[in-house]
Amino acid sequence: MTANALAYLRTSSAANVEGDSAFRQNDAVMGYASRTGINVVACYWDAAVSGADPIETRDGFAAMLEQAAQDGIGLIIVEDASRFARGMIAQEMGVMLLVKRGIRVVTASGQDLTDESDPSKVMMRQIAGAFSQYEKAKLVQKLKHGREQAKAKSGKCEGRKSHAEQNPKLVKEARRLARKSPKTGKARSLRQISEELAALGFLNVNGKPYAATSIKNMLEG
């Protein structure tokens, strides 16, 4: 009998939401499921959510736990331990919660994060969690230092490219749609602009219409 599972993806910053992180995670998870004969029923994604946040406070993870309870699914697949949690406290509290609910979390490499039977494996998981938390803190510190140096040198610091820099045609079309009608004097709402852009084939990296905040940035950028 084929086992059913739920997939979980997490991107930690807004910059990663429109990048390839979610695609990479999904490929890893689905690859593992295919190799092991597991049927992934649904995939949940927490975008721009810190790995230090408790799992039950994340909208995507909370919704996934609801489906797991309703459908009797006892397996969750993640790309690696850092997608589940980045920080020992969040990791261990999450493991305790899932073990209590009878749910296993397995990584795309086959590691069972909820296996409590081997003390040495538990210790290694905790060490890995602490190291992941340390690496994240060092990366944040390094990026902050780099921004400060760039700002001191040039008076400004470049961040993520704007929509206009990434896709000039998209922004040009969005601004055209934002103009008031010469007949009625009315302008389209941000949602209407997004819908019309989608109809013209302009979608975000997830294949969905742009959010209203993205449309606003296009018009103001």
UniProtKB/TrEMBL annotation:
<keyword id="KW-0238">DNA-binding</keyword>
<dbReference type="InterPro" id="IPR006119">
    <property type="entry name" value="Resolv_N"/>
</dbReference>
<dbReference type="GO" id="GO:0003677">
    <property type="term" value="F:DNA binding"/>
</dbReference>
<dbReference type="InterPro" id="IPR036162">
    <property type="entry name" value="Resolvase-like_N_sf"/>
</dbReference>
<feature type="domain" description="Resolvase/invertase-type recombinase catalytic">
    <location>
        <begin position="4"/>
        <end position="154"/>
    </location>
</feature>
<dbReference type="InterPro" id="IPR050639">
    <property type="entry name" value="SSR_resolvase"/>
</dbReference>
<dbReference type="GO" id="GO:0000150">
    <property type="term" value="F:DNA strand exchange activity"/>
</dbReference>
<dbReference type="Pfam" id="PF00239">
    <property type="entry name" value="Resolvase"/>
</dbReference>
<feature type="region of interest" description="Disordered">
    <location>
        <begin position="146"/>
        <end position="168"/>
    </location>
</feature>
<protein>
    <submittedName>
        <fullName>Resolvase-like</fullName>
    </submittedName>
</protein>
<keyword id="KW-0233">DNA recombination</keyword>
